[in-house]
Amino acid sequence: MVELLGPHNKTSKEGAPAPAPPQHEDLYAKRRQIYPKLAHGKFRTIKWIVMALTLGAYYIVPWIRWDRGEGIPNQAVLADFAGEKFYFFWIQIWPQEAYYIAGLLILAALFLFLVTSLFGRVWCGYTCPQTVWTDLYIWVERAFEGDRAARMRLDKAPWSFNKVWRKLGKHIVWLIIAFWTGGAFILYWHDAPTVAKGWFTGEAPLSAYWFAGILTMTTYFLAGMMREQVCTYMCPWPRIQGALTDEDALNVTYRYDRGEPRGPKRKDQDWEGRGDCIDCNQCVQVCPMGIDIRDGSQLECIHCALCIDACDEMMVRIGRPKGLIAYDTDTAVTARVEGRKPPRWHPFRVRTILYAALMAVIGGIMVFGLMTKSTFEVNVLKDRSPPFVRLSSGDYRNGYALKVVNKDTDARTLILKVSGIEGATVSVIGMEDDLDGEFELPVDAYGVDRYRLLVTAPAGEPRRTLIFETTDPETGETTRNSVPFQGAK
After folding, report:
1. Residue from 244, 353, 341, 232 nearest 288 by CA
2. The whole model's pTM is what?
3. I need a surface site. Which of 49, 258, 341, 462 has the fewest CB within 10 A?
4. How many Å is the Cα radius of gyration of the chain?
């Protein structure tokens, strides 16, 4: 008789253990809580300085005033969408000059490529907003809960008044910082004193409340809760930087040629036949990403160099030279492993020269454009419907819309002259007839003025060209616009 095997049978008919039910692998790795220990050393000091400078600039810059004249925003840095202009100290960018914004973005990308090719991911380790605000949040966390060991004990401890007030106080300060961050962001899009004054009275724009709320919550969750997950899973830069570095780029490197074989060391044991790494794990404990730099180059590493500080401190304690973990190149490490003298670091390589050259060319073009750009622009648009009107005299009339953009902070009067068709007459609606073929066009300071023109010409070729020449008599600056004049086909 054959025994039927069900899902709970322990043995088969031969008496052998039944196969275990299939196990389904969990494809999602649960987050492992990281408790970075406070490091001490030159790189930690540099990070404190960079954090203070970048946060100070972010919060203070919107309050810097810059006098540009009456009726013009006097905020030094302002993206004025309502006025359709961007102000950056003495530079003003109009909508039709958006290519300067594109140029700045290209320059920023090339600069990031260059720095990565030279020094690895120093941007990620020192100046990335995610890193800066996470550093600030960890500093607040230490202030309330203590350093690594104290935080680990507090998390394992049962809930008590001590644990509640420390956790609650930390999150309240985090939310305050997040609110300052979101509030400071909207000051770059509106006049800072006006928005700050109207914020608590309900007079600020609805968009200001909306975007401040979004920035508040994203800062709170990204810097307080997600931290290293943003760098590992959300940011594309770790994947891109692999194409920008090579064996000659300086990276935070564990010099395994000196550290291996690693292991604990007794006091009476000499250093013969072993490496300098005593497997103390201090480099892992200070890492905000929770990785082990001794495992080699890793996607998660942000090159903050805190592991260098921790390792150097330990090397001093045990009487060994500093630099077991240091900024180094793969070429140098490989040479030492093979018993060769490591080559000098070469910052001037094909890719670094290429990035620097592109930056110089694009930067030069932008500077030249800013220095020579016109202080006014004239756009002439021909009427499309109807394209022309035939008068009883047999002449043809075309209508045009003239838009004058005055980029100067003073009002001015421009001279308009229309030519190109013999016998043509020009009239500007709302003005007297032209004097010697010229019109005086008054334009407001730092604004846009529009005029309506009618040009009448005798019958001739079906399609001819008019030249609109606009001149500033004080500076001699001139613009020319060629526009078609249509008649009967």
Report:
1. 232
2. 0.81
3. 341
4. 34
One digit per residue, the tens of pLDDT, for the chain of length 489 reads 334 444 444 444 445 555 555 555 566 667 788 999 999 999 999 999 999 999 999 999 999 998 877 777 889 999 888 777 888 988 888 887 888 889 999 999 999 999 999 998 899 999 999 999 999 999 999 999 999 999 999 999 999 999 999 999 999 999 999 999 999 999 999 889 889 888 888 888 888 899 999 999 999 999 999 999 999 889 888 888 878 888 888 999 999 989 889 888 888 788 888 889 999 999 999 999 999 999 988 888 999 999 999 999 999 999 899 999 999 998 999 899 888 888 888 889 999 999 999 999 999 999 998 888 888 888 898 888 888 888 888 888 898 999 988 888 778 888 888 888 888 888 888 776 555 568 888 888 877 888 888 888 888 777 888 899 988 888 888 888 899 898 876
Residues 61, 50: Cα–Cα separation, whole Å? 16
- Tokens of residue 414, six digits: 């421009």
Q: Is 91 helix (H, G, I), strand (E, B) or coil?
A: strand
Structure tokens at 268: 């009476």
CA dihedral 219, 223, 225, 227 (to 10 degrees): 140
